[in-house]
Q: What sequence folds into this?
């Protein structure tokens, strides 16, 4: 990833206020509350709102992001909530996670650059144990129509960085699909996710 990409997220997370709020994503919350706590990985975790929520539920949480500013906010949020999270800074290939280790991986608005998003999904698959769960929510390719009407809803502005059901099936082929849909939702997450948007939601179990 480029320095400008890292700088973009450092700039966003350097403000005192949390870019996407301190509360967990609604879909993640709904899905985690169905599961028994275990080990979970949060890629592109930003300021830690979802990781901290999982830790409060009793999960053993690992997370990573390219933004050191994001990590700083996440660790402060964890301390405020009296929980601990293992948070690494760097690109996935430079980090040392254990294969077949995690019971769940949560990809919540993990919009990696278009050129590498599928390869990252396939790389992450190695770290999930057999029977483990992927929880995914991110903007769909249809989202550009919503973004054109309301920039406050946020999300990437190039269609290649957005997702389709077809792409998710291709990236996670060896999964039992528990749920996979495109859906219009109302977002109210901090400063940068506000209004109606179109998302892909996916829950899958690794075969």
A:
């Amino acid at each position: 990833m480029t320095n400008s990409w890292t700088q973009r997220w450092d700039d966003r997370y350097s403000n005192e206020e949390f870019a996407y709020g301190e509360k967990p994503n609604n879909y993640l919350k709904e899905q985690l509350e169905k599961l028994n706590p275990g080990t979970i990985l949060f890629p592109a975790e930003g300021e830690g709102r979802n990781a901290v929520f999982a830790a409060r539920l009793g999960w053993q949480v690992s997370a990573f992001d390219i933004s050191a500013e994001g990590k700083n906010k996440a660790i402060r949020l964890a301390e405020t909530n009296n929980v601990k999270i293992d948070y690494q800074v760097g690109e996935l290939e430079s980090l040392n996670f254990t294969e077949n280790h995690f019971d769940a991986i949560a990809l919540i608005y993990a919009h990696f650059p278009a050129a590498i998003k599928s390869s990252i999904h396939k790389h992450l698959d190695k770290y999930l144990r057999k029977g483990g769960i992927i929880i995914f929510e991110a903007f769909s390719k249809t989202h550009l129509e919503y973004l054109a009407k309301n920039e406050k809803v946020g999300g990437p502005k190039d269609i290649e960085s957005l997702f389709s059901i077809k792409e998710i099936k291709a990236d996670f082929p060896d999964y039992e699909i528990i749920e996979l849909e495109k859906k219009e939702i109302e977002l109210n997450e901090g400063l940068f996710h506000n209004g109606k948007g179109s998302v892909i939601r996916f829950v899958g179990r690794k075969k």
Summary: The beta strands are 39-42, 60-65, 86-89, 102-108, 128-139, 175-189, 193-206.
